[in-house]
Amino acid sequence: MLAKGSAPWIATVLIFTIISGAGTYLTKNPYMELTTYIGAISFVFLLRFFRDPERNVKMCKNCMIAPADGKVIDIRGRTVCIFMNFQNVHVNRTPLAGIIRNIEHKKGGYMPAFCKDSDRNERNKITIDTEHGEVNVTQIAGTITRRIITYVKEGDITQQGQRFGMIRFGSRVDITIPDLFDILCKKGDKVYAGETVIAMKNTRNGRNR
User: Fold this and answer.
1) How far apart, in Å, are the Cα atoms of 169 and each of 91, 163, 180?
2) Could you give the strand order of the β-sheet that contains 163-167, starting from the edge strand earlier in sequence?
3) Mind listing the pLDDT tens digit for each residue in 46-105?
4) CA angle 106-71-148, nearest 5°?
């Protein structure tokens, strides 16, 4: 399965490769042959990058699941930062069920998403009103192409593990963890959107998981 919104990119590269390949066959031009190889490699790369596999979503109202594939590069107080490289699936998923209360887009720079200075990058902050309180999921653009795509709108009711957007070509997702939850992941952990539990509601003061 391919990510929503990826078809124009893949179709454009495929058409370019077919035309270039036809030109190579007819003219035997070595430069056109090179462009055909580049187009074919780009096509394969895009197919892999825009993949959107089905996930065995861990449905648990007292568990928070990772919103993105990647590596936990930092935990700042109650915020978990996940970096996605080119090999990761870039489709993002809702960590908890709730209502989309606000979507705030901010323009900014394009530092590499793993840098601390990427806090100034272009971003999309999505506020989800859950039964445990507000959760902010922030999509941060990286250095290449820098396009944040959102599948949801304000007022939407989302289910846990539902796709809510993607970021093209290198990026980061930050997620705030409510005070009632214990953070289970640590810096350096690999996580998978919709599958990895990154936090769980604690049992202190008689609270049940």
Assistant:
1) 11, 18, 34
2) 91-93, 163-167, 148-150
3) 888 778 888 888 788 899 999 999 999 999 999 999 998 878 888 999 999 999 999 998
4) 25
Element spanning 44, H or E: helix 30-49
The DSSP bridge partners found for residue 167 are 148
Residue 118 sits in the same domain as residue 198? yes
- Supply the pTM of this predicted model: 0.79
Strand partners for 176 = 79
User: Which residues on neighbouring strands pair with residue 96, listed in sequence order?
Assistant: none
DSSP character at residue 23: H
* 171: annotated active-site residue: yes
Domain residues for the domain of 19 are: 7-49
**Residues 100 and 199 reside in one and the same domain:** yes
Instruction: Judge contact between 116 and 146, C-beta under 8 A.
Output: no
DSSP-assigned letter for residue 173: E
Which two tokens mark 5?
């919104």
